[in-house]
Amino acid sequence: MSDPEQVFEKYAFFSTRKVREVWGNVLGNLLTLSVDEITITYSDRPDEFFNHINDRTRKILLNHPDPEKIESLQGVFTDGGVFELRGGVLTITIPSDQYNFELVDNMKRFLSPVFPTCVFQNPYIWGVDLYEDYSRELFFESRVFTARSQHLEEPEIDIFRRDDGIIYKFRFFTREEMTMDEGFRLLAPLFMALGESLRKRMLEGLEVLHLYCTDKPAFRRLEPRTKIGRDIKAILSDRR
Question: Out of the domains of life, which is the source (predicted)?
């Protein structure tokens, strides 16, 4: 699974919450899925390995007394795919020869106030999903920038309400070719900054992405006024 050519999709969810809250959120979601193996690595003791995930195992993991001492949580999904939680980053990798439809369908549950930013790549396109707390003003001001596509391999913006949140789904091509890990390192802080600007109801970053999806000539001519607008434009390919 470490060979990039074997990876079909990879997702990285980013959190700035405290370790114990992250741990509880990840385990609460992961353990509702079919998991075969879990390995916990520590900074001060031997690793722990679980290869039979049952109710007792779930209880042990959810009530772990020292999540702050855990370096990483790694595991294998029964129907394909692996995960790793390290620090505040949860990565989920899906191999090309074992596509896990159940896992992909349930991926949305990880996007939440605890993990409000998700960056992913598949063979066709880059994507970022953001979760923001719902406010009527922000929702109605921002959803005019929706630009849906009928094709998975084309840029788009989808904005919709889910429970108490607003979900922003962005699909795009980057100006420079990047590996998955390079893209995660570049795009995560950039779109976290976009989320922060949205909370302040500063929408130029969203406007840049909308022009990119809907009007390439106008996108090329655009000279953003804000730093977030300039930074967003700088990473987008104006060729596709």
Answer: Bacteria
